[in-house]
């Protein structure tokens, strides 16, 4: 029989470790316990940026009550119509007296469809008892009222409660980030307690600390850090490493980090390999991020900005067909320079975000060859 390693044990424990989200978990438990106890329907809205742990925590918390209610999952990115979503509800096994907890991930996708039939049907049913609706959105806190709630029809909005659970975390310091990593590496299993005494020395390793700092600077995300930790533990176990004190541990951590977050050299190579049109589109994203202080934006905004840029500086790059530019933006997402934050029925309204450091882009542009003189003028204007 195979002997369990400390890293295999840590990987099993990692699933239950969440950092900085105790209040969210507590609020979720509070909402569900009240529903189960009072047997009265209701609703709540959960919001927060992508990779903030919403789906993982919600899925884990609700399953603690699986014996008390039927749990139904609906995802606006997977189900392309209200009809398809309603079929899932019709196929559920609940009877008229059984509690039903419906989780609508990416619920904002249903806001823009037709007459918001699914949301109205669910929220209306929640008012008569036995059904609770949890609406989950990956929009930023500052956009949730404008983009989602305010776009609801009056008949739908009036049926939605004012219970909000925010996964948007306050600013995270590097010290917080390092402590979270230590938490992920800490085991509660008595058999492996000696591992805990090696954690601080491992994190203090020059290579490990430098890579951890890179992850912090680029993401400031506990969720991303958790993904890197999971891969690190898998790699350590696969190579039959027995301790964090191993001279191979720092190398394996760097490999795990690079598997999740591309290093600067990789991203630089990607940027320098772009076509001139793709580079201009990327620069438009940089401008939107820098001057409008936006974390995300839609393809249509990028294209409008691109047309202003090329009309003034590079008319030869202008194209009449938006589809050509949309395909180029999709390519940038595939190359991980941009991240596609949400699927959308219309390509022009896809939401995306910049996944590369702004200064790195501007520095790479200066090495780009051949670089038209007109574009150099535009970049100089951008840096002022």
From TrEMBL:
Gene Ontology CC terms, in alphabetical order: nuclear origin of replication recognition complex
GO MF annotation list: DNA replication origin binding
InterPro entries, per the entry: ORC4, ORC4_C, P-loop_NTPase
Principal location listed in the UniProt entry: nucleus
Protein's cellular compartments: Nucleus
Gene3D superfamilies named in the record: P-loop containing nucleotide triphosphate hydrolases
Keywords: DNA replication, DNA-binding, Nucleus
Highest taxon of the lineage: Eukaryota
Domain Origin recognition complex subunit 4 C-terminal: 192-313
GO BP: any one term: DNA replication initiation
Family, per entry: Belongs to the ORC4 family.
The protein, known as: Origin recognition complex subunit 4
Organism listed in the record: Acanthocheilonema viteae
